[in-house]
Amino acid sequence: MFVRVRRAARLVVALLAFGGLPAGALAQPAGIDPQALAILKKSTDYVAGLEAFSVDTTSTIEVVLTSGQKIQFDHAAVALVQRPDKLVARRQGDLVNQTFYYDGKHLTLYNPGEKYYATVAAPDTLEGALDFARERLDIIAPASDLFYRNAYELLTADIKSGFVVGKAVVGGARCDHLAFRNADVDWQIWIEEGARPLPRKYVITSTQVVGAPQFAALTTWNTAPKFVAGAFVFTPPKDGRKIDFLRLTSGTAPAQGRKQ
C-alpha cells in the first residue's frame, strides 16, 4: 500500500512538472467570477423548484489528531423531501446511526441501535425546522444546505472569491466544477450540466482549523420519487426509550458551520 501511495505522489509531481494538469487548476483568479455565480444560481433555483425529491449521499469527514495525522470517517445518508414541510433523513456510518424526522409539526431524532428517540415541537416550514434544529439543538440534517429555497443567498452571503475550475465527470455526469472561498472555509461544488443542474459533489475545507480537515460528499438524486403513506411520520417502537433533547444555551453557537 505504501509503495502505491509513493508511486501516486510521484505521478502527481510528474503531472505538475510536465503540464499534465490543467493550468486553470493551478492558479486562483482574483475576485468573484460572475459565471461561477450564474451556474450556482441555476442549480439552487432548480433544487428550490423541486416539490419532492430524494437524495443519497456518501460522505467522508476528516479529523486531525493532536499529532497532526488525519483520520477519515465515512457515512452514507438518504434524505426524502416533500415541500413545504416534510423531511426524513437517515444517516449511518463510522460515527453515527440516526434518523431525522420532520412531519410539519414535530422534529424527532431516532437512534435505531439503542432505540432512543427525542421529539420536540418545530416550526411549520422546512427551512424553519432546519434552522431550529441547527440553532437550538445543534443538529444538522444530511445535505440540508441544499434544501433551502434561498440556498443561493445563504451560500454566497460572505464569499470572498469564486471561479470556474473547469469541466469534470462525477458519477458518470459531466459537471461544472466551481470553487469558492469564505472567511473560514474553502468550498467546491460540482454541478451537473444540462437541464438538471443538480449538485453532484461538494468539498468543504476548514481553513481555520489546524491541518485544514475536509468534508467531502457525493450525491445521487431522484427528482420524481414516490413516497409511501406515512413516510414522514415517526412511530416509536414498542421497546423505544424516549429522552429529551439537550438544547443549546442562549448565545451558544452551533458546533458546526452552515456548509457542513
Your description of this structure?
With 260 residues, the protein is α+β, with helices and mostly antiparallel strands. It has one domain (29-242): outer membrane lipoprotein receptor (LolB), chain A (Clam), CATH 2.50.20. Helices cover 19% and strands 38% of the residues. It contains four helices and twelve strands, in the order ααββββββααββββββ. It has helices at 2-17, 34-48, 126-137, 151-156; strands at residues 52-64, 70-82, 86-93, 97-102, 106-111, 116-121, 161-170, 173-181, 185-192, 199-206, 214-222, 241-242. A twelve-stranded mixed beta sheet has the order 7-8-9-10-11-1-2-3-4-5-6-12, with helices on one face. A hairpin with a 2-residue loop joins β7 and β8. The chain is globular and about 60 Å long. The two termini are 31 Å apart.
Please write the string of helix (H) and strand (E) elements. Answer: HHEEEEEEHHEEEEEE
Work out the count of structural domains. 1
Largest sheet: 12 strands, mixed
What's the overall geometry?
A: globular
Determine the number of helices (DSSP H or I, runs of at least 4 residues): 4
C-alpha Rg (nearest Å): 20 Å
Name the helicity range. Answer: 10-25%
CATH-defined fold name = outer membrane lipoprotein receptor (LolB), chain A
* Poorly predicted tracts of residues: 1-6, 11-19, 251-260
What CATH architecture would you give? Clam
How far is it from the N-terminal to the C-terminal residue, by CA?
31 Å
Strand element count? 12
CATH class: Mainly Beta
Strand content: 35-45%
Mean pLDDT: 87
